[in-house]
């Protein structure tokens, strides 16, 4: 009766969030007095999951599963849970996993709690803490079903090393013909660049930047920091930047280590969406901008003067600390 | 084509969030309720299906009588008929089971729900509903075209987007992109008057039970004071981010 964790991989290698969910699964397993097993689809090996407390890795190698398919992936996880008689399943908060989670929930008649920020408060009854009201509050939620599914927030629990030796077992799920009823036609994805979902640093621009032609310095700052670029809601509504960059309550949530807001005043919806970021820096001409009340560090000044200076100084800093 | 748009009744995005009854309940005092923004994009997309492809559009919500102004707004925007399941939406699984019952009885071809509600952020209702009904499902949907029985959708993925082909019957979890913010509609006087004549059916819930319970709420810890750095002293900002915050 181990704890099962779905560890996502891409091109055979585990994604960054795999370490965090593995660490979380180990913590839950410890509390329940059992071990943690990972289920993985088309990963090349167990990788370093053993370093994060995973005792066993089930690896599915299947050409049909080369491209993500929510229904098929949910079936794989459901069958792995059955094989391991797992009563607790740990998932990440990636877009793909949030897609398959409700399918898995319905298949297993489970209780599913997403956006969980810390280890269970107790395991009997099973209670977890999650964000609600788009990060404006927290709830302690009890799961009363037999099978429990916990979706762990990005960058909240963190990764913790627990040296274990992971054994590898291949797992061959049975997937019926009625599984692949949605077909991926085309994937348009930025490669080699950090995404808002998994970047350590996010650099975000608002209406204070006056127009899309001024985004060059935002992109350059992001490049120097190895950061993802984002924007406020008005900027995406004006069509200055793509919708995929909109962060806030109705856009994407941000849970990076560092969030730099440039020319963003800080509407309550925006602040809610980025509040899970650990450290927030604001650069704005208006010292009364609400963002200064939510930020850790602030610079009152014109972005067109401050940002180029910041880029130059960061380049010097990077050169010295390389 | 028969479409059901699922609506959640949520606090307006500008709401300050407070809790009451010893932090066990959301404090609705002074809170303005609206159609969940992710659902409203879907409702507008459904209106286009109605106007351009002759679809029939119904809306459904799971909520107590206090949610009726939100449903009336959807009727004023142009939905043909509404259904309210007379129950407090205790958790996502419960809501999905109630809506699945409506879909089954109404024989809908397409069900449009929001990818998540902005209050409890569960993000599970459309996916559970689709699975219970054996319908196809696409989440975080940012564009949707239907031709006959075939659907082409685009979904947002981490760092990009994916185009998907599937068939009806279909459930989507929609969001901004299905239509743009500027496409959203404000009900006009004629719409509001017509909405009064439209059917709003109230049905009692099925006997399903919740599997999760919020036992207590907390507000985030108050934020410490911001450290201001002079615009002429960017070296200091880098120093603080490196040595104090340790994020670069």
Automatic annotation (TrEMBL), chain A:
The record's annotation in PANTHER family points to: ELECTRON TRANSFER FLAVOPROTEIN ALPHA (PTHR43153), ELECTRON TRANSFER FLAVOPROTEIN SUBUNIT ALPHA, MITOCHONDRIAL (PTHR43153:SF1)
Report the superkingdom from the record: Bacteria
**Gene3D superfamilies this protein is in?**
HUPs, TPP-binding domain
Q: Which family does it belong to?
A: Belongs to the ETF alpha-subunit/FixB family.
Chain residues that bind FAD = 207, 263-270, 284
Alphabetical keyword list: Electron transport, FAD, Flavoprotein, Transport
Listed cofactors: FAD
Give me the comment on cofactor binding. Binds 1 FAD per dimer.
Q: Name it.
A: Electron transfer flavoprotein alpha subunit apoprotein
Tell me where in this chain the Electron transfer flavoprotein alpha/beta-subunit N-terminal domain is found: 3-189
State one molecular function term (GO). Answer: flavin adenine dinucleotide binding
Query: Which ranges form a coiled coil?
Result: none
Species name = Arenibacter palladensis
Q: Name one Pfam family in it.
A: ETF
A Gene Ontology annotation in the biological process aspect, one of them, is: fatty acid beta-oxidation using acyl-CoA dehydrogenase
Membrane-crossing residues? none
- InterPro entries documented for this protein: DHS-like_NAD/FAD-binding_dom (IPR029035), ETF_a/b_N (IPR014730), ETF_a/FixB (IPR001308), ETF_asu_C (IPR014731), Rossmann-like_a/b/a_fold (IPR014729)
TrEMBL record, chain B:
Q: Which residues form the signal peptide?
A: none
Q: Which residues form the Electron transfer flavoprotein alpha/beta-subunit N-terminal domain?
A: 23-212
UniProt entry tagged with the keyword Metal-binding: no
Stored Gene3D superfamilies: HUPs (3.40.50.620)
Output the SUPFAM superfamilies linked to this UniProt entry: Adenine nucleotide alpha hydrolases-like
Recorded hits in InterPro entries, A to Z, give: ETF_a/b_N, ETF_b, Rossmann-like_a/b/a_fold
Record GO terms (molecular function): electron transfer activity
Listed A to Z, the keywords are: Electron transport, Transport
Coiled coil ranges (UniProt) are: none
Q: Which residues cross the membrane?
A: none
GO cellular component, as recorded? cytosol
Task: List the SMART domains.
Answer: ETF
| Family as reported in the entry's similarity comment | Belongs to the ETF beta-subunit/FixA family.
Name of this protein: Electron transfer flavoprotein beta subunit
């Amino acid at each position: 009766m181990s704890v099962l964790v779905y560890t996502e991989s891409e091109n055979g290698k585990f994604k960054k969030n795999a370490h965090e969910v593995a660490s979380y699964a180990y913590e839950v397993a410890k509390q329940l007095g059992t071990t943690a097993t990972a289920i993985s689809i088309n990963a090349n090996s167990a990788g370093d999951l053993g370093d994060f407390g995973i005792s066993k890795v089930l690896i599915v190698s299947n050409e049909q599963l080369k491209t993500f398919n929510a229904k098929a992936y949910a079936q794989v996880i459901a069958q792995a849970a059955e094989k391991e008689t797992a009563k607790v399943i740990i998932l990440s908060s990636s877009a793909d996993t949030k897609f398959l989670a409700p399918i898995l929930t319905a298949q297993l008649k489970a209780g599913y709690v997403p956006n969980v920020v810390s280890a269970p408060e107790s395991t009997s009854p099973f209670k977890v803490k999650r964000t609600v009201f788009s990060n404006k509050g927290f709830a302690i939620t009890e799961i009363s079903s037999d099978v429990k599914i916990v979706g762990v927030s990005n960058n909240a629990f963190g990764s913790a090393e627990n040296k274990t030796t992971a054994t590898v077992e291949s797992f061959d799920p049975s997937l019926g013909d009625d599984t692949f009823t949605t077909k991926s036609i085309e994937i348009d994805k930025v490669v080699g660049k950090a995404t808002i979902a998994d970047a350590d640093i996010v650099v975000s621009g608002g209406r204070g930047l006056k127009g899309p032609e001024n985004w060059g310095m935002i992109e350059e700052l992001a490049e120097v920091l190895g950061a993802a670029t984002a924007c406020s809601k008005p900027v995406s509504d004006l069509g200055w930047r793509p919708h995929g960059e909109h962060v806030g309550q109705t856009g994407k949530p941000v849970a990076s280590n560092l969030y730099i807001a440039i020319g963003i005043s800080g509407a309550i919806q925006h602040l809610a969406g980025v509040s899970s970021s650990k450290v927030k820096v604001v650069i704005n001409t208006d010292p009364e901008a609400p963002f200064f009340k939510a930020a850790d560090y602030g610079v009152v000044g014109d972005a067109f003067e401050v940002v180029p200076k910041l880029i130059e100084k960061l380049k010097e800093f990077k050169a010295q600390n390389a | 084509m028969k479409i059901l748009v699922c609506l959640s009744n949520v606090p307006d995005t500008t709401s300050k969030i407070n809790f009451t009854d010893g932090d066990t309940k959301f404090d609705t005092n002074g809170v303005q309720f609206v159609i969940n923004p992710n659902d409203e994009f879907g409702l507008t997309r459904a209106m286009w299906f109605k106007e351009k492809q002759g679809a029939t559009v119904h809306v459904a919500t799971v909520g107590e009588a206090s949610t009726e102004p939100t449903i009336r707004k959807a009727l004023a925007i142009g939905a043909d008929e509404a259904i309210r399941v007379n129950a407090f939406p205790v958790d996502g699984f419960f809501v999905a089971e109630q809506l699945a019952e409506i879909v089954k009885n109404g024989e809908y071809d397409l069900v449009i729900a929001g990818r998540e509600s902005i209050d409890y952020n569960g993000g599970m209702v459309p996916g559970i509903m689709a699975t219970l009904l054996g319908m196809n499902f696409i989440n975080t949907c940012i564009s949707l075209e239907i031709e006959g029985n075939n659907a082409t959708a685009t979904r947002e993925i981490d760092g990009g987007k994916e185009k998907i082909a599937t068939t009806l019957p279909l459930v989507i979890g929609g969001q901004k992109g299905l239509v743009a913010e500027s496409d959203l509609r404000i009900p006009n006087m004629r719409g509001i008057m017509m909405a009064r004549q439209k059917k709003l059916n109230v049905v009692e819930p099925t006997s399903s039970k919740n599997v999760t319970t919020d036992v207590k709420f907390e507000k985030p810890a108050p934020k410490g004071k911001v450290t201001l750095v002079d615009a002429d002293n960017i070296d200091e900002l880098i120093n603080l981010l490196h040595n104090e915050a340790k994020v670069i």
